[in-house]
Amino acid sequence: MHKANRKAGFLFGALSLGLLGCAKPQHSADEFYVMIATNIKIPYWQAAAAGLNQTARELKVRAEFTGPETYDPQAQKAEFQRVVSRRPSGILVSPADPVLLKPEIDAAIGEGIPVITIDSDALGSKRLLFIGTDNYEAGRLGGQMTAQLLKGKGDVIVFTMPAQMNLRDRLLGYEAIFAGHPQIKIVQVVDIAGDPRIAFDKATEILASGKPKVDAFVCLEALACPEVAEALSRKGIKDKVVVAMDTDPRTIEWIKKGVIAATVAQKPFTMAAFGLRLLDSLHHNRPPSLTIDWVRDTTSPLPKFVDTGATLIDKNNVADFERANP
């Protein structure tokens, strides 16, 4: 067998066994894994932490969840550096600013620490792979719903954080759908900088002044749309389309009340759970090198991207969602 094929076949088999729960590696006392996120107090990241912790218990390994409690890329960079200095067995990270974190990811890989990005990618870094939503398709999903609710015509305001690659991809997905509806226009893109108060204040200002004219509010992350819904509710405005992102409990409540029309739901629990299983398998079935060009290596045992999926939640299926997620 060709040497490269032996490498790929052995590692792929070992990874598959570990991910399926068939392998029972012996865990050492100093083996531990860390997931580094941002805004770690919000429900989205608490769901990811639950996935991490449950999987750690199943694997009988140590796992830690850390990161800044607000959107703070510099603080996340400092935390990443601190984690690397502790020499963990592997790192899951959702880069708040992929450009800022790229040198740190590359340095960790250079020190032999496997790094996998989840939720938000860092293209161009040496991370091993990305686990998360196909964000372009998530944007298309939200765009299709928005276009349908607008009946193909209207002005849209978007709330986002432009530095995050996943949110940029979602916006591209929306734009791709809107391109097929020339009478739908994005009239403003608002950077909330991780602060939901900015979304509330901006929505309140726009609703009070009527400028710019707006028919729909679209949110590309979890924090903004509950605030937009609050602003609309306070003014008693019911004729605006609101399409959210993620399943913050407030978002679900506003869907039930009819203020938010729909939200695009992701699977952060799955991202963290699968990511930890993969890091554990990589630790116990070490590849020859972490600096292989995994993307271009046609014998690579690792995929470039694992899509954990997204789904649309609206008034028609919100009860089903709540039953599935008690």
Describe the protein's architecture and organization.
The protein has 326 residues and is α/β, with parallel strands linked by helices. It folds into two domains: 3-133 and 267-309, Response regulator (Rossmann fold, 3-Layer(aba) Sandwich), CATH 3.40.50; 135-265, Rossmann fold (3-Layer(aba) Sandwich). It has helices at residues 3-19, 43-59, 73-85, 98-110, 135-150, 165-178, 196-209, 224-235, 249-257, 268-284, 318-324, and strands spanning 32-36, 62-66, 90-93, 115-118, 130-132, 154-160, 184-191, 216-219, 241-245, 262-265, 305-307, 311-314. α2 runs parallel beside α10 (268-284) and α5 (135-150) packs parallel to α6 (165-178).
In brief:
It is built from eleven helices and twelve strands.
List keywords for this structure.
single chain; 326 residues; alpha/beta; Rossmann fold; 2 domains; 6-stranded parallel sheet; 11 helices; 46% helix; disordered N terminus
> What would CATH call the homologous superfamily of the largest domain?
Response regulator
CATH class of the largest domain reads: Alpha Beta
CATH fold-type name of the largest domain: Rossmann fold
The gross shape turns out to be elongated
Query: Order of strands in the sheet with the most strands?
Result: 2-1-3-4-5-11
CATH architecture of the largest domain: 3-Layer(aba) Sandwich
